[in-house]
Amino acid sequence: MEAPSQYPILSQKSKRHSIGLKFMGLSFHPLSGKPNAELMPNRLDEQAYFVLDLGALLTYEYFIVPDILSVKFIQGLYADCAAQFAGVTSIGLRARIFQIGRHSLLGGMGPTWIYRHNWFLIPNYVDTKYYKGTPTDKWQYKFLWYGGELEYKFAISSKLDFATIFVPGYPDLMAFAVGLNYKL
pTM above 0.85? Predict the structure, then answer.
C-alpha cells in the first residue's frame, strides 16, 4: 500500500486535466493610460495607471507531463478599461518554473487574441494604433503570437488549488486575476 504524500501536489497519481475560474479586477498601465485616461471611468488615479476591469477567465489545462508541462486554453470576458465588453482567447504551452511543497510557479506562452467593442465609438477617443479596426467596425482586436502569463498556485488539497495570474503585457498593460483550479 502506497503511503500518502505529505504534499498532495507531489502525488504520483496526478491528474491530467484541470479547469479553473479566475476573477479579474485590476490592470496596470506602466506608461499611464494616456492619451485615453479620461475615457476610463474605473481608473483609480487621474492618469489611469491603475484601472478596475472586472471580469472572469475560464481555463482548461491538459498536462502532457503531470504537474510539469501542459497545454492551456483560456477564455476571458470582462469590462475593459473603458467599461465596455471585451474578451481574450488564448492557447499555449505552460511549464512549471519551480515547486516548493504546496507552492508552485508556472509560466506560459502562446497565441493570444484580444478583442473589445470599438473605442472609436467613444467621443474623444485617440487611436494609439495598438488595436486593429476602423471607425466603422464593431470590434477592435489584437493578435499576439507570444502572449504570456505567470501563475502562482497554492495546493489547498490534492484536487484544488488557489491561483493568482499575472499577465506581463509591458509596456501597454499588466493584468492580475485570482481564483481556483480544480483537477478532474
Answer: yes
Q: Which set of grid coordinates corresponds to residue 127?
A: 487611436
Question: Using CA atoms, how far apart are residues 58 and 138, in angstroms rounded to an integer?
Answer: 24
In the beta sheet, which residues pair with residue 173?
A: 169
Which among 61, 77, 79, 78 is positioned nearest to 151, based on CA atoms?
Answer: 61
CB 70 within 8 A of CB 62: yes
CA angle, residues 109, 144, 125, in degrees to nearest 5: 135
Tens-digit pLDDT profile for residues 125-165: 999 999 999 999 999 999 999 999 999 999 999 999 999 99
The structural domains of the chain, with segments of one domain joined by +, span 8-183
Phi, psi of 23 (to 5 degrees): -110, 125
Name the amino acid, one letter, at 108. G
**Which CATH number, 2.40.160.20, 3.30.1490.20, 3.40.50.1370, 2.60.40.1510, labels domain 8-183?**
2.40.160.20
pLDDT tens-digit profile of 52-66? 999 999 999 999 999
Task: Show Cβ contacts of residue 1 under 8 Å, excluding neighbours closer than 6 positions.
Answer: none
Q: What secondary structure does DSSP assign to 99-137, as a single string?
A: EETTEEEEEEEEEEEEEEE-GGGSTT----SSSB--TT-
